[in-house]
Amino acid sequence: MPYIVSLGVGLGIGVIYALIDVRSPAPPLVALAGLLGMVLGEQAVLQLKAKPAGSPAKPTLNPTDRSTDLSDKRKDSYDHP
To answer: 0.85 exceeded by the pTM?
Structure first.
């Protein structure tokens, strides 16, 4: 499946190159800009997958703040008969 997707994306890029009149292989600066776009796009997708929409931000723990100590809260959270 990755080969088919890669072929499809390559065909799409070839069409875009033809439309904007860039020769293939692309000049070094155009190629580097394309590679940078690929890396940024990949990172953006990974970030979106890692944090679903609408999920609250992950709280940061401050080691000097005693209110973030979960050990005391766990003891109180259980109902004992």
So the answer is: no
